[in-house]
Write a structure and sequence with these properties.
The protein is mostly beta strands. InterPro entries: SRCR (IPR001190), SRCR-like_dom_sf (IPR036772).
Length: 673
């Protein structure tokens, strides 16, 4: 008996007050009250060791894997805190897998609730694993029991490709090689091996000479049509002489690849000759993640994952390394049970991250964002204090050297940010920096804690000058010293509807309307040295920029878009500011912007601006630079505003009181200074 207890149960019975000495041949012979209809308030519940069965599952063979114990008619995952090699030997003998075995520790998989605790006392001799079963329900300090028994046997192909090579058999810590004898090596056996290794059928098979490698262990296997695995075939003595032995070699039709669903990040996807799909997260290790990143040329480090993964149907339960295998595609695969739903293995390689400037009418300047797990996330200002970090981003984006940090522009609508970077001098890729730390945004993060960057290859495109969405196209860029700006006209050469459509979108000016050529005078002006071609689907006009070709005509470009931003104050020269009917967020607003509004509305300059009203879910975030003369020319992004909206009072408001009696006029003028 392993355990017994009394179960409360109101029922009828035939024995009560049972008292055995231990010498009786059956329970019936013990001293007891016998009656055909005894009312019982409780009954005995007994578990015998003969009801306990064991098996190894989710491993590369019958004699290796996770220990499952059948206890009280349920298969449960075995966990233990005190395990010795002698216990492994007992288990392997029970399974007829040899006289010894090795245990490997594995933390209990999350989500496993149906487990059984094995607590074998150190130094004790046990005859059966059932001797170790306890009632302990805790898991602290316990590991899953994973065993590889002495007779664990695995087939593999010895070559760089996963589905071609010399047929090998790992057995008892040794490697055996399958004989290429004509008597046992044929197309059927070759097909069986390829199918067993998830490689389809054999495209060709052959025999290779030993080449004086006399230390190799060579064995012959005699297979019949009923065998499903080479391991089920009978081992026979080779009929060939020791001096004429050959090795079995096969090329299978299929191939095995281990990749990530998004290149250098995503779910682990395994593709074989007959199926493809995901592998269980529970069977995946950090060492495998690092190895996969190396194999995919995605750096040799991983980054923490933040995406929430749902359970999905898996194709493979696990994969296991061979002594001779190096690549993951040559590991032994274990198929998942039909409709097994678990979380899949998921990896983010360091090589998956890359920086960008948020697409706009500016090149090499703007909000710095880093691609991470499929999203573009902002960078904390502390991460870009170091000039080496700044230069790394500028150089990776072919933007020269860093010039200065700039204010972050626009709304913040993400859950994570880059909190820390550590790049060395002359590092030209963010993925090769020593330290990249991603942090979840807790609470409300102010955009003042984020930053943008301006590099030496900066340039911006505007329309000059009387309208926001109609005018001559001009590029401002840095001169050689990065201190002064240069003004250049854009050539009309090569410009068509696609290029005009893209620039109108960048300027937030609606659809493209028309372009025209205008005479360019080279005496007092310069022409931008690059041309533009938007034949692909660019995210900004600067992605259309091409190296300049010889231009037969020297005309500058005039562009007109369909829309013109409607800039309005709620009252004459004062009140709530709206652009195209939407309020403007006050969180990044500057006094200089207020002057532009008042001047555009012929209300002179601004007296002041203030934050009014509650936060808005749909407002414009405005960002102007020195080359924007009209507020409609400034960059604007629609999004959530955590502060109130902008209200402005202009000097032009004072014009309404100048017609009052002279005594009042002076006082009012003083108040409007």
């Amino acid at each position: 008996a392993i355990s017994y207890k009394s179960l409360s149960q109101d029922t009828s019975g035939i024995l009560d007050h049972v008292n055995c000495t231990g010498s009786e041949s059956s329970l019936w012979h013990c001293r007891a009250k016998h009656h055909n209809n005894i009312r019982c308030s409780s009954v005995p519940y007994v578990v015998c060791s003969g009801s306990v069965n064991v098996k190894l599952v989710d491993g590369p063979g019958r004699c290796a894997g996770t220990l499952k114990v059948q206890h009280e008619d349920q298969w449960k995952t075995a966990i233990s805190d005190k395990w010795e090699e002698t216990f492994s030997a007992v288990l392997c003998k029970q399974l007829e897998c040899g006289d010894s075995g090795k245990k490997s520790s594995k933390t209990l998989d999350k989500g496993i609730s149906n487990f059984l605790t094995l607590s074998c006392k150190k130094g004790t001799q046990i005859s059966d694993i059932s001797d170790c079963i306890t009632d302990n329900k805790g898991t602290q300090g316990y590991d899953q029991v994973e065993i590889t028994c002495e007779k664990h046997t695995v087939i593999f192909l010895e070559e760089s490709k996963p589905c071609s090579g010399t047929v090998g058999i790992e057995y008892r810590d040794k490697t055996h090689w399958l004989s290429g004898s004509n008597q046992t090596w044929n197309q059927n056996v070759a097909n069986m091996i390829c199918q067993e290794l998830h490689c389809g059928n054999a495209s060709k098979f052959s025999s290779k000479p030993l080449k004086n490698q006399t230390s190799l262990l060579v064995e012959s296997r005699n297979c019949s049509s009923s065998n499903k695995s080479l391991l089920q075939c009978d081992t026979t003595e080779s009929q060939e002489s020791d001096n004429n032995q050959t090795l079995a070699y096969v090329d299978c039709e299929g191939n095995i690849t281990v990749t990530l669903t998004h290149g250098c990040w995503g779910k682990v996807n395994i593709s074989t000759a007959s199926k493809q799909g995901y592998v269980s997260k529970d069977a995946w290790t950090e060492a495998m993640s690092v190895q996969l990143c190396k194999e995919l040329a995605c750096q040799d480090k991983t980054l923490p994952t933040h995406n929430w993964l749902e359970e999905t149907i898996l194709t493979f339960k696990s994969l296991h390394a061979l002594r001779t295998a190096s690549k993951l595609s040559r590991h032994t695969l274990v198929d998942a049970n039909t409709m097994l739903r678990q979380k899949p293995a998921y990896v983010v390689c360091k090589g998956s991250i890359k920086p960008r400037f948020k697409p706009s009418r500016d090149k090499c300047s703007g909000n710095v964002e880093v691609f991470y797990e499929g999203s573009w996330i902002p960078v904390h200002k502390d991460a870009l204090q170091n000039i080496d970090n700044q230069n790394t981003i500028c150089e990776e984006l072919n933007c020269g050297k860093a010039v200065t940090r700039i204010d972050y522009s626009g709304p913040l609508e993400v859950n994570h940010l880059i909190r820390r970077l550590q790049c060395q001098k002359n590092t030209n890729s963010l993925a090769t920096c020593q330290d990249v730390v991603v942090e979840k945004i807790e609470g409300t993060l102010q955009t003042s804690n984020l930053t943008g960057l301006k590099c030496s290859e900066w340039s911006t495109m505007v329309l000059e000058v009387e309208h926001s969405c109609k005018g001559e196209v001009v590029v401002y860029s840095f001169r050689v010293n990065n201190q002064e700006t240069k003004r250049s006209f854009v050539s009309s050469h090569g410009w068509g509807e696609a290029e005009g459509e893209r620039l109108c979108m960048d300027l937030k000016c609606g659809k493209y309307k028309r372009t025209e050529d205008r005479i360019f005078s080279a005496e007092a002006n310069s022409l931008w040295s690059q041309s533009f071609n938007c034949s692909s689907k660019p995210e900004s006009i600067w992605q259309c920029e091409k190296k300049q070709t010889a231009i037969s005509q020297e005309n500058k470009l005039f562009l007109e878009c369909e829309d013109e931003p409607e800039v309005v104050l709620s009252e004459k020269c004062t009140g709530k500011l709206t652009i195209n009917g939407s309020p403007v967020c006050s969180s990044q607003w500057k006094t200089d912007y207020s002057h532009r509004v008042c001047q555009q509305l012929n209300c002179s300059n601004a007296i002041y601006f203030q934050q009014s009203g509650p936060p808005s879910t749909d407002s414009y975030h405005v960002d102007c630079d020195e080359h924007n003369y009209l507020i409609g020319q400034c960059k604007r992004v629609r999004g959530k505003c955590n502060s109130g909206f902008v209200s402005i009072s202009c000097v032009g408001k004072c014009a309404f009181i100048l017609f009052k009696p002279p005594a009042l006029r002076l006082c009012n003028l003083i108040s409007c200074t």
